[in-house]
Design goal:
11 strands, 19 helices, binds adenosine-5'-triphosphate, two-stranded antiparallel sheet, binds magnesium ion
């Protein structure tokens, strides 16, 4: 019997004692079969959501419309979902209706892949009606039932097949793969958020090269044009730190370099990334393939875009054969050489004391001083800058 954390055991026991079927399902069962310790726990039960809510003192109706209740035990929480069968799929995305069922096997039959359609009870007895264990041993991703029908029902499964192949290093079964090349067009029915979340799992996985399969299948054709020229292989993204910002910046840089997207910032916004992520990762993606190595040029970019996008761009630049920018940037940061107005030895207030009038000329003067300091950082002394500012004032009031 696999080792279950006490809160998971407790929930399974309470459900069983009340006379209901209760099983671990999906990801954690797959993990156990693969010899991995699960990170999260999904429970399926024959008890209805109402019953689950009465059996446990603390619950949240997280996905009550789909039969999911989150049960809180001490500091832990587990999603408990009532056995269900999905109805016809109205928009290829959401089940038109949820029908609760009493048989575990009917619940497993609605699940996407054989490896995800297994259940495990408290005593360690596994239910595996579709050969999930056999497929896991063969490292094979195979749909439950007719693949074309399953992808037509829910196009998210097209992405899920590829992201599991990226995360687990499994191959996609030939029939399943063939159905994907027939049904790929359904991907257009998916919301940008769901596409983004699945693609991100590919980018952050140990095999980001699977992005090439995602593109070749046409799954991103709503967001990405054809690759106009040879580009950096996506597998190289694994050299970048495994953060969302770096991997998206790298992917956007590769796509932009290949002519498949016009503007990385817009690309990321279209995928409903936050404005912060779109700006930082998108600007980095725009800059990365031609990032300068000259310190003055880098400081100008820092002054224009801020340190975050330029730092990420320097992280991505090695994909394009440029290792130097990141070293030069390190030197700029550690030397304390100024690259933004806030680092100047004088402020707008100082300018007022030497005859400037409030207004846009203050900002213009500070920018002009910064440009001089970027070129020659030894000028960043109060007296020097005040003298230069006076010259600026004379020239601009003449
Ligand atoms: P992860 O480790 O990424 O959480 P997981 O298998 O737990 O992997 P989830 O997205 O958490 O994946 O989904 C839980 C389970 O729900 C899956 O194992 C699968 O049985 C089922 N499932 C999820 N999404 C779908 C879908 N689109 N179609 C059919 N079954 C699905
Ligand atoms: Mg899960």
């Amino acid at each position: 019997m696999p080792n279950l954390p006490s809160h998971v055991k407790y929930i399974l026991e309470i459900l069983e004692q009340a006379g209901h079927g209760a099983y671990l399902v999906g990801g954690p069962v797959r993990d156990f079969v693969m010899g991995i310790t699960p990170k999260d726990w999904d429970i399926a039960t024959s008890a209805t959501p109402e019953v689950v809510q009465t059996l446990f003192p603390r619950t949240i109706p997280t996905g009550i419309r789909h039969g999911t209740v989150t049960v809180l035990v001490a500091g832990d929480s587990v999603e408990v979902t009532t056995f269900r069968q999905d109805g016809a799929y109205l928009d290829h995305r959401r089940p038109e209706q949820v029908a609760y069922v009493t048989r575990l096997e009917d619940d497993l039959a609605r699940r996407d892949f054989t490896m995800n359609a297994m259940a495990l009870d408290l005593r360690g007895k596994r239910t595996d009606p579709f050969g999930g264990q056999k497929d896991i041993i063969a490292k094979c991703i195979r749909t439950v039932g007719d693949p074309a029908a399953r992808f037509a029902e829910d196009a998210l499964r097209l992405f899920r097949a590829l992201r599991f192949s990226a995360q687990l290093g499994f191959a996609i079964d030939a029939d399943t793969r063939a159905a994907m090349t027939e049904t790929w067009g359904r991907a257009r029915t998916l919301s940008a958020e769901r596409v983004r979340d699945e693609v991100e799992k590919v980018l952050l996985s140990p095999r980001p090269g699977v992005m090439e399969d995602v593109l070749a299948l046409g799954l991103l054709s709503s967001y990405v044009g054809p690759l106009a020229k040879d580009t950096v292989p996506f597998v190289q993204l694994s050299a970048l730190s495994a953060t969302s910002i770096s991997r998206w910046a790298g992917a956007a840089a590769i796509l932009a370099e290949a002519g498949a997207i016009a503007d990385p910032v817009v690309f990321l916004q279209t995928l409903r990334h936050s404005n912060t992520t779109s700006t930082i990762a998108g600007t980095a993606g725009t800059l990365a393939s031609a990032l300068p190595t000259d310190p003055i040029a880098l400081k100008r970019l820092l002054s224009r875009y801020g340190s975050a996008p330029v730092s990420v761009a320097a992280q991505v630049a090695p994909l394009f054969g440029n290792q130097a920018s990141s070293y030069v940037l390190e030197q700029i940061f550690s030397s304390g050489e100024p690259y933004c107005v806030e680092q100047l030895a004088i402020t707008g207030g100082d300018l007022l004391t030497i005859g400037f009038t409030p207004g846009p000329n203050i900002g213009a003067a500070l920018s002009a001083l910064l440009e001089q300091v970027i070129v020659e950082s030894s000028l960043n002394q109060r007296e020097e800058l005040l003298a230069l500012a006076k010259e600026f004032l004379q020239e601009n009031t003449r």
